[in-house]
Amino acid sequence: MRQERAARLGQLGLELRARPRFAAKWEDGFALLLKYLKENGDCDVSQKHPNYPTLGAWVSNQRTKHRKNKLSDDQIGRLEAIGFKWKAETTKIPGRSS
């Protein structure tokens, strides 16, 4: 949830907290993305990467959440700080027309 919206709800007396389990899962995914970045030099993880079978789906989910405004400003900032691209790179396969 965006910080501005959370602040407005807080002014109304509603206190919102990130659910620890989901926050921890996001941190685990981000840590794995940092490892991938160190090894590969980018954040463009294939959903079928043999060494990172779940990371490609996590990356795709971050893009979807971003489009739906479901990431916090902190999450967006951290992803952008490491060069995360909000649109997936498309790879042309030789012999196939697009």
Key traits:
98 residues; mainly alpha; 4 helices; disordered C terminus
Structure write-up:
It is a single chain. By secondary structure, the protein is mainly alpha-helical. The protein has a domain at 19-81. It contains 4 helices and no strands. The chain has helices spanning 3-11, 20-40, 55-67, 73-81. The radius of gyration is 16 Å and the shape is elongated. It starts with a helix and ends in a 17-residue tail after the last helix.
List strands and helices in order, with pairings.
Layout: H1 3-11, H2 20-40, H3 55-67, H4 73-81
Radius of gyration: 16 Å
Q: What is the molecular shape?
A: elongated
Q: In what range is the share of β-strand residues?
A: under 5%
Give the H and E element order: HHHH
Number of strands: 0
Summarize the structure.
The chain has 98 residues and is mainly alpha-helical. It has 4 helices and no strands.
